[in-house]
Write a structure and sequence with these properties.
This protein is 42% helix and 10% strand. By secondary structure, it is α+β, with helices and mostly antiparallel strands. The chain folds into two domains: 2-145 and 329-399, D-Maltodextrin-Binding Protein, domain 2 (3-Layer(aba) Sandwich); 154-323 and 435-470, Periplasmic binding protein-like II (D-Maltodextrin-Binding Protein, domain 2, 3-Layer(aba) Sandwich). The strands form five sheets. A five-stranded mixed beta sheet has the order 2-1-3-13-4. The chain has a four-stranded mixed beta sheet with strand order 8-11-5-12, sandwiched between helices. Helix 19 packs antiparallel against helix 20. It is globular.
């Protein structure tokens, strides 16, 4: 019945028979419910200044629900119930598409999607679900056409490299040497024991600071749990690569000599952030967005020397970092309108407005005259506002600036609007303005103006033909899902065990992990994933 309803609604849209959104009552906003696959710690209940401006412009107020516990579990329960909110931000469209949860947005885009067409441009075709199903079920949530200037790499405190005379910082051995030398000189910081390298294994964050890093340090780009051979386009589970075993062996060694935080595999995210904010964690292997809140707390305390530089650390000289590689546009995650949406046209018009120039500027820059000013045609953030934006961890929550960029349709960094200003604030000038005095001093010592200068440059690296493999929707086949879950459970159990074991036990544990994931169905899931990868390459016209 839901599918018939959707087809009927789509036909009415094409025929223009549905009244404009908000026609019933202009005084009361339309409340749209939304499930977000990612938790937003700065959520305000859509009551912050930016949210109110959005409601003023669209007549829509969002009521956003977040997963409690595992995202996948919430999705499973939602689909089992057959009841959906108006909007869903997903991180894997497969379950929702197979359950018939999303409406096809194609006729809405044709009728009402002027801003959507403009924003996605040549990548609009990549929003189509597959070769077999060309429907557009959701709008991609990552920046379209984004330039990469801001890198995470591997993080090391400015105090460390300054104290040691700015040593070479290219391999894990260089990192280890620096951590070891600094701890020997400063066994405590602010009255607490100095920590060398801290990891985070809390839920899915295990992927970010533990397993993904093995791929990055051995010359692989971010393809999630997969490594795709750039010559053959064949994917393998990246943990099975022999070079990654050696990265984990190095972590085992770091633990053995007391340079790895012993709480790495038991601490929760808030404990990890608090530890970083204390200033006593010398090094991280993390993404900036994950530790940024703790670094802001360090800035707020005036502990700029305890904030971090970003270094292109690799396992050894055979490898080079791929952080600046352009993945193209994958459109793998995004926001869809569900079959239970109370007003699909209003919901779509809301999303289309979020793709507009007005919305992009509002969400990225804030309110003119409050969060920025225009001087000689150029948007400028006043010094006091900039200081709050960079150093106050409560800035987003209090102002709403930046809260509604992700996971909504968004322009990429570096793209110019019709006034000649960038849609986003992230530009080389903004990034440099963010740097503290000690950060500029450290960069100058390494002969760089920005951290990206230390990394292999984008023009040296080919554009990834397959986009980001971690955004490829996986099949809902129970056999695949069960095998994949078993494999993930084994990896999350065995890799920490191998890292924390005595060095003479490392290989036995790692070999056991490889055998266990083979027995759990690795060959099957690899074959199935490669089918999906090949379909994407065909869908995008990369291969025939």
């Amino acid at each position: 019945m839901k599918r018939l309803f959707v087809l009927g609604m789509a036909l009415m849209v094409v025929l223009g028979l549905i009244l404009p959104a908000g026609a019933a009552d202009k005084n009361e906003p339309l409340i749209l419910t939304m499930f977000s696959g990612d938790i937003n710690p700065d959520d305000t209940g859509f009551e912050d200044p930016i949210a109110k401006k959005i409601t003023e412009a669209t007549g829509v107020k969002l009521k956003i629900e977040y997963p409690v516990g595992e995202y996948e579990q919430k999705v499973t329960l939602m689909i089992a119930s057959g009841e959906y909110p108006d909007l869903i931000f997903h991180k894997n469209a497969g379950p929702f598409v197979e359950a018939g949860a999303f409406i096809d947005l194609t006729p809405y885009i044709e009728e009402y999607g002027e801003n959507i067409k403009k924003l996605y441009g040549p990548y609009l075709n990549r929003l189509r679900y597959s070769i077999d199903d060309p429907s557009i079920y959701y709008l991609g949530c990552f920046g379209v056409g984004s330039k990469v200037w801001d890198v995470s790499g591997v993080q090391l405190q400015h105090a460390v490299v300054k104290e040691l005379g700015y040593p070479k910082m290219e391999t894990v051995q260089d990192l280890e040497n620096a951590i070891k030398a600094y701890i020997e000189k400063y066994p405590t910081i602010n009255g607490q024991p100095t920590i060398g390298l801290s990891l985070l294994a809390d839920d899915w964050r295990f992927l970010i600071t533990v397993t993904n890093q093995a791929a990055f340090a051995t010359g692989a780009p971010d393809d999630g749990e997969w490594y795709v051979d750039p010559e053959t386009y064949e994917a393998v589970l990246h943990h099975t690569r022999p070079e990654e075993r050696e990265y984990f062996r190095w972590l085992n060694h770091m633990n053995d000599i007391g340079l790895l935080d012993p709480e790495s595999f038991v601490q929760k995210y808030d404990q990890y952030l608090a530890k970083i904010a204390s200033g006593r964690v010398l090094a991280l292997t993390d993404a900036r967005w994950q530790y940024e809140q703790a670094e802001q707390a360090l800035r707020q305390q005036g502990m700029f020397e305890r904030t971090y530089g970003s270094y292109p650390i690799v396992l050894d000289e055979r490898f080079r970092r791929m952080d600046l590689q352009d993945p193209g546009y994958s459109a793998g995650w995004g926001i869809g309108i569900t079959v239970d949406c109370k007003d699909p046209v209003a919901a779509f018009k809301f999303l289309d407005w979020m793709a507009s120039d007005e919305a992009q500027i509002l969400n990225n820059w804030g309110i003119e005259g409050v969060n920025y000013v225009v001087i000689d045609g150029k948007r400028v953030i006043p010094p006091e506002e900039m200081n709050r934006r960079l150093n106050d961890p409560n800035y987003r929550r209090e102002t709403g600036v930046g809260l509604y960029v992700y996971p909504f349709p968004q322009r990429g960094d570096g793209i110019l609007d019709p006034t000649g200003n960038t849609y986003t604030v992230t530009t080389p000038d903004y990034i440099k303005e963010r740097y503290s005095d000690i950060e500029k001093e450290v960069l100058a010592a390494y002969g760089a103006e920005m951290w990206m200068d230390l990394f292999p440059q984008q023009d040296e690296l080919p554009i990834k033909p397959w986009g980001a493999a971690w955004q490829i929707p996986t099949p809902e086949d129970p056999k695949y899902q069960m095998a994949w879950q078993r494999i993930q459970d084994i990896i999350r159990r065995r890799i920490p065990e191998a890292i924390l074991a005595s060095p003479d036990q490392f290989d036995a544990i790692y070999d056991k992990m490889l055998q266990e994931i083979e027995d759990a169905g690795l060959e099957y899931v690899t074959t199935e994933f490669n089918k999906l990868l090949q379909n994407r390459l065909k869908h995008w016209g990369i291969i025939e």
